[in-house]
Each structure stands twice: as C-alpha cells, then as structure tokens.
Amino acid sequence: MRMTNPAFVPPDAMKGIEQLLRATTQGGVPQRTLELVGLRVSRINGCAACIQGHVPEAA
User: Fold this and answer.
1) What angle do the packed helices 48-58 and 31-45 form, to 10 degrees?
2) Interval 13-35 mean pLDDT
3) ∠ at Cα 7 (6, 13), nearest 5°?
4) 32 within 8 A of 56, measured Cβ to Cβ
5) pTM of the predicted model, to two decimals?
6) pLDDT band at 57 (very low <50, low <70, confident <90, very high)
7) Which residues contact 11 (CB under 8 A, 6 or more apart)?
8) Which in 5, 8, 15, 47 has the greatest CB count within 10 A?
9) Which residue blocks in the chain are alpha helix, DSSP H?
C-alpha cells in the first residue's frame, strides 16, 4: 500500500519511525547517505511528502 500522506500513518508507527531515525543518526553513517537511503525508501513507499523532505537534504 502506498502512502499518500504520512499523517495517515498510525501514531504508534510514527513513534517507531522517529526512534529509528534518531538511532541511525548516531551510527556514524554520513548524513547525506542517510538522506539518500531515506529518499529511496520514500520512493518505494510512495510517500510524496517524505520525498520532498529528503531531496533538499540529500542534494
């Protein structure tokens, strides 16, 4: 199922996503690489809002 808007993600799922993002920033992977991975995941999930958020950060 593709997301049209991340606001439709159940609140408990969003908490897990936020924790995962915090953990990945502490792992030593360059931020640009994390943004590129986030961009790819957003494309796979079809989340336009997430894509728009990752593009400027990855550039």
Assistant:
1) 160
2) 85
3) 75
4) no
5) 0.67
6) confident
7) none
8) 47
9) 11-25, 31-45, 48-58
